[in-house]
Amino acid sequence: MKPATAGGPYKVPRQHDNWRSVTLAVAMHAVLLLFLWVGVSWQNNEPTEVQAEIWDMKVQDAAPTPTPEPAPQPEPEPEVVKTPPPAPKVEAPPEPKEDPEIALQRIKKKKLEEEKAEKLEQARLKKEADEKLAKLEAKQKAEQKAKEEKAEQEAKEKALAEKEKKKAAAEKLAKEKAEKAAKDKAFAAEMSRITGAAAKGSTGTAAQSTGGRVDGGYAAAIRTKIKSNLVYGSEDDSLSATYVITQLPTGEIIGVRKVKGSGSAAYDNAIENAIAKSSPLPKKKDGTVERELNLDFKLKDMH
User: Fold this and answer.
1) What is the CA radius of gyration of the chain?
2) Which long-range contacts (CB under 8 A, 24 or more apart) does 106-113 make?
3) So where does this one cross the membrane (predicted)?
4) Are the C-beta atoms of 211 and 263 separated by less than 8 Å?
5) Model-level pTM greater than 0.85?
6) In the predicted model, is pLDDT for residue 55 greater than 50?
């Protein structure tokens, strides 16, 4: 190694012995691995057999066999848990062969049991079907009976209503007949009274016209009153209806009969309503009335 130049900077000399350190480290590791391998091999060796000999006491003692010194025990290695090998598969012993006759009997018995079970199941299903059918028939019979009872009740109610209607119509007709009879009786009595009064009077003229031609002014007065109660809005002047009006001596209308219709139900109804509203009708100038009046009602005259 050359010394540093005087006056120059100091330099660290290079070291050339690194390979020695590496070699030494490798050697130490090799020795350690060898030691470990020897220890493991010693543990795996089988134990040494020890033999002993028996000597007679009379025989001179032989020199004792030197006892070898035990080798140093290596450090115990960690215990490795080994998985136990799978247990060998145990095959079931072969079943003894069955006697063919016994096997045939067993098959027949099984078949009979299956047929019996099938018959029982069919019987159960048939019973359920019969029960359902019986319930359905009972329900239908009950519904039919209810319908018949309802129809019978409706027929009874209809017959009763028809009977009541006929009874009411009969009572109404009887009442109308009674009223007409009473009016006719009253009219006859009034006519008798008027006729008797006229016979006793000094003039000797009749109080009632029983027939013949109706006075024009009297008929016009009646039409005028009926016209005032007529409610009809058609412009067809060709409409014409003829009615017979029956009245009491007081002018009260007791009957209206259509002799000839106009062809219009609305106009005919309007004329009939106007006649009914016009009761009592006007009298003649002498205070008498015509029992029956046959009057024509032309729409052109009713405006």
Assistant:
1) 75
2) none
3) 21-42
4) no
5) no
6) yes
